[in-house]
Amino acid sequence: MENVIAELSEIVGPEHVLSGADLSDDYSHDEALSVEHQKPLCVVRPAAAEQVSRILRLCTDKRVPVTPRGSGTGLSGACVPVPGGVVMSFERMKRILEIDTENHIAVVEAGVTLDELNTAAAAKGLVYPVFPGENSASLGGNVATNAGGMRAVKYGVTRQHVVGLEAVLATGEVIRTGGKLVKTSTGYDLAQLIIGSEGTLAAVTQVIVKLVPLLEHRATLLAPYKSLVEAVRAVPQVLVTGVGPLMVEYLDQFTMMAITAQSGVDLGIPANVQSDAQAYLLVVLEARTAARIDEDVELAGRMLSERGAMDVYVLPSNAGTKMVEAREKAFWSAKAAQASDVIDIVVPRASLPAYMERVKEISMRHAAMIPGCGHAGDGNVHLAVFEQDPDKRSRILRDLYDSGRALGGVISGEHGIGTAKKKYFMALEDPAKIALMRRLKSAFDPAGILNPGTVFD
Ligand SMILES: Cc1cc2nc3c(=O)[nH]c(=O)nc-3n(C[C@H](O)[C@H](O)[C@H](O)COP(=O)(O)OP(=O)(O)OC[C@H]3O[C@@H](n4cnc5c(N)ncnc54)[C@H](O)[C@@H]3O)c2cc1C
């Protein structure tokens, strides 16, 4: 193993191989609540695709596991290292290579964060519209998890915005797939296969994404409901108006109280309404002109009222921004409240009312608290499970996943399988599909060194 460290040092320089006392605990985990931290042999920090290629070739030859790592904000334990393995961190690959204002494309290295990309794009009147709630996440990590987030209801997820990749296979071969293209029909779409593969098929070194023009006018509507089921039942109706909301989020009462207490946001809603409300819809609209936004607010507000909202509040712009920021931080509130796990089942959005009924029934049957919030417009719920006993928690999770699947849903809408959900994925997914995935994995990574333990053992 000392040889491995010496050879890695030759590739990237000794100062970019961290081991022993230099190894911070940060590299031993992501943000998943239920996954144990693991110390790697070392962390290697390449600066270019050519170095990534040499590292992977070396690790394939020596059969050393490699865990790619972006910013470590993942929620499924997918970048938790294998003991004795190497963490390959993309923190030095941070160049924004191009913001192309004519093709509306950005070309970035994998370690560039969402924040950095959006600062550069905004200077040119553009935005990368995918908005997974943590701005410090890297584009490489976003690609590997197929990150979604609050704006997916309007713009789609990472998959719909990546038009090309540069990636390195475990053998060290560098491939470029796609490009600054609106379309391609030229053989298998390898970029789409790598997206969502959680670092198990290839190391992504460069990402080419679509940008969209920034729309200046925004409005935030908050609609309280007497029940959670009523709140989510209104979602398809809001979408059918054609206002094309930027966000349609739900929050149950527990979550709303937790995030407002933590962020200090004043909803400006009468106390009696707040105490009666069991759930809220948070709807954000955006448009090119003030007149258009007024029209859309009127229409969406009317639709929410007709569909059972106790009232509809248009938040002042500052309060609207704060409310969205508080919602983004719901995970931290759940963590502070000592949630044992946060999961992200997705069902068809019209099945959300039925799913919420089942969650309530599961919560009562197991006598466990399961509050949540989520991207209601996508049918994607983030449930915080409060149950310290691992066996009991496992039974609760299995019930939640089974119920979601019975309604046509899947285990993860955006956080991925990682190490945290692997046993449920294996138990519930079609064996023929798993077998095909395994064959694809060995075509990309014959020695099985890339992120072993994530998705598959
Ligand atoms: C408060 C909070 C809110 C969040 N909200 C959302 C949300 O709304 N929607 C959402 O989708 N996610 C959300 N997330 C999860 C997280 O931000 C995303 O999963 C993000 O895409 C992870 O990016 P990262 O750079 O931190 O990746 P990491 O956590 O470092 O890694 C995640 C996966 O990507 C792989 N990987 C990283 N870089 C590369 C690379 N260059 N090549 C190959 N594989 C790589 C890793 O091996 C691992 O499998 C949230 C997280 C937090 C903490």
Sheet with the most strands: spatial strand order: 15-12-14-13-17-18-16
Listed once per kind, the bound small molecules are: flavin-adenine dinucleotide
Largest sheet: 7 strands, antiparallel
Secondary-structure-based class equals alpha+beta
Tally the helices. 17
C-alpha termini separation: 22 Å
Shape: globular
Query: What Rg do the Cα atoms give?
Result: 22 Å
Strand content: 15-25%
Poorly predicted spans: none
Give a quick set of tags describing it.
19% strand, single chain, seven-stranded antiparallel beta sheet, alpha+beta, 37% helix, binds flavin-adenine dinucleotide, five-stranded antiparallel beta sheet, 457 residues
Q: What this model shows, in words?
A:
This protein is of the alpha+beta class and 457 residues long. Helix content is 37%, strand content 19%. It contains 17 helices and 18 strands. The strands form four sheets. It has a seven-stranded antiparallel sheet with strand order 15-12-14-13-17-18-16, with helices on both faces. A five-stranded antiparallel sheet has the order 5-6-10-8-9. Strands 1-2-4-3 form a four-stranded mixed sheet. Strand 8 (162-168) and strand 9 (174-178) form a beta hairpin. Helix 1 (2-12) runs antiparallel to helix 2 and helix 14 packs antiparallel against helix 15. The mean pLDDT is 96. It binds flavin-adenine dinucleotide.
